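Forwarding these from the shared drive since the link keeps breaking.
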Amino acid sequence: MKNIAILASGSGSNAENIIKYFKNHPFVRVDSVWTNNKDAFVIQRAENLGVESHIFTRQEFRESDTMIKDLQKREVDLIVLAGFLWLVPPIFTSTFPIINIHPALLPKYGGKGMYGSFVHAEVIRNKEKESGITIHLVNQEYDKGEHLLQKRCPVYITDTPESLAVRIHELEYAYFPSAIEQFLIGTK
């Protein structure tokens, strides 16, 4: 059995989708959800689906190996970032494979501060004809890791960040879990 730990900072809709996808999977399970935000709705989503959640501080994440040791004790094989906004320290990227999802077609519209509606607003402001998602490995820089999958959707001249976000979320929900599965066990 391959174990996933999900890191999330907010609502947790992608985390919930991933948990549901792997709920009765024969080879993969979501072991736990970890958040840096004690008020994040992802905690409630995880609890509702019977997945343990943990809250951690910036200091625990950046200046201690306690969280790494906890994840190793849990035999975590993969960390998945699902709306997690902090840059991951080198100790994590050298210990675990880590996958992230970004709501744009990297390398465009990536980097620090480029998440959620900020990305969609920039895509629209620049009159892009398409946007999409990029699922990628995490390294030492925001949104610079090897791409595993990109999926596209149109950007309409009438789009707002909110309307574009709806199509981006549809892509995330449709492709993120299967990309994780493909990475872990090589199936589609």
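-- next protein --
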Amino acid sequence: MTVRVYFATNRCADDPDDPTEFLDHACGEDPQNLRFGIAEVDLDSGDVDFTVAAESNVGDPETQVLGSEEVFDRLRQDMLDDPADCLFFIHGYANSFERALYRAATVSRFYRGIGSGPLSKKLHLFAFCWPSDGVLFGLPNAYRSDRIDAMLSGPAIGRTILKALDFVGGLRPEDRCNRRIHLLAHSMGNWALRYALQHIRDEGALGRTIVFDQAILAAADEDDNALEKTEKLGSLAALARRITVYINFQDAVLHVSDWTKGNPDRLGKSGPRRAEKVPANVTVVNCSKVITQKQVTDPEDVELGDASETTHNYYRNDDTVRRDIVQVLKGLSDDLIDNRRWVAEKRYYTLQEIIAEPQVARRRSSRRPRRRVASAARAEGPG
């Protein structure tokens, strides 16, 4: 199965004129520099084949060619030809460029499921690939390095969102696809999102319009009071019609982030510090009862242990959570989503039981990457 993923990145390219690889650091001296492109991801082999949109005469309104406009227009046409909503995906910690695109593509497979029934959601994917180092243990402090890069990448994510708004705003009504755009930020992607929101606010665009219909914050490696503070994630409430926060008390990765990195309690592990203070359009869903630790059977995953498995990556690995997210993306109101129980004293919903669904096996490929092709399936990081 091949999935198309549109992308933006502030990673440095090996060749600015004809990129064949994106590196583990930002472009030059300015982490806000952006490149846009389109990737075809083979979910069976893990091959990622991408092309980068051309840029020329940037800064000259009369002659400039912007890669963002080409990519947004291709996405618009896809959404017209194959009607479906778009999901804007921000990956987490320890993801290479190719792995981030692979992760985005797996979301399409997992959420679409089999067929087109009520628990299936077809999506077009747009991923922002910020310059994570893509390693867990290979640097003196890989977590700190990624955290700094995520923070510095926030304005680039904000620029991408504003460019998309400008593109849509410039369309004639008859050229619009009139589909919804959703947001999914996972793990450290929520930390990057904080600084994207700050950039949008600094540009005076906060509250200009609703950008996202559904915003999903999964396993958020953010402070537990982030949604209470407009300088953190609180201003997302002005850009999204509804925000759903998924938490898991057993999240092993966020436990490490909390206790060994000197961070406050994490939003994705403990939930909001003061639930009564979060914006009214925020819903919290506690996954702790249904998530179980997946047995590690692949030797390549042993060193990662639980970090690569369900307790942190449940947004794509756990059947019950995926079922819940699909219903959120379909726009069902909270009280109509099945398999939930409202806990009034905690101000959150709790998921009840695992619903087993068929799993799609993933084959591993020994083929060497081709030009502009890389394999992302073999390395499963936590983010």
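The first strand starts at residue 2 and ends at 9. The helical segments are 67-81, 97-112, 142-169, 189-202, 252-260, 267-270, 310-317, 319-329.

- D.
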